[in-house]
Automatic annotation (TrEMBL):
It comes from marine sediment metagenome. SUPFAM superfamilies: Ribosome-binding factor A, RbfA. This is Ribosome-binding factor A. One of its GO terms (molecular function) is ribosomal small subunit binding. PANTHER family: RIBOSOME-BINDING FACTOR A, CHLOROPLASTIC-RELATED. GO terms for biological process: rRNA processing. One of its GO terms (cellular component) is cytosol. Pfam families: RBFA.
């Protein structure tokens, strides 16, 4: 799964990323960072797809009624 591979890569690069952030941030200590898959985005995408399909069906029904 592409998401799992990306997450694994980010987790493996955490120390490097923190080091790079530390160069740019004016903080005494760089906070710990944690990466995780945002499942809410996938859920939102699925809902948007369903809503779009419903809208398309309603539009097609209106077109069919107008053609009768």
């Amino acid at each position: 799964d592409q998401q799992k591979k990306a997450l694994k890569g980010l987790k493996n690069a955490t120390k490097f990323i923190r080091g790079e952030l530390g160069k740019d941030l004016k903080l005494r200590y760089v906070p710990n960072i944690e990466f995780m898959i945002d499942e809410d985005l996938e859920h939102q995408y699925k809902l948007l797809k369903i809503i779009t399909e419903i809208d398309d069906q309603q539009l097609n029904l209106k077109k069919d009624k107008n053609n009768e």
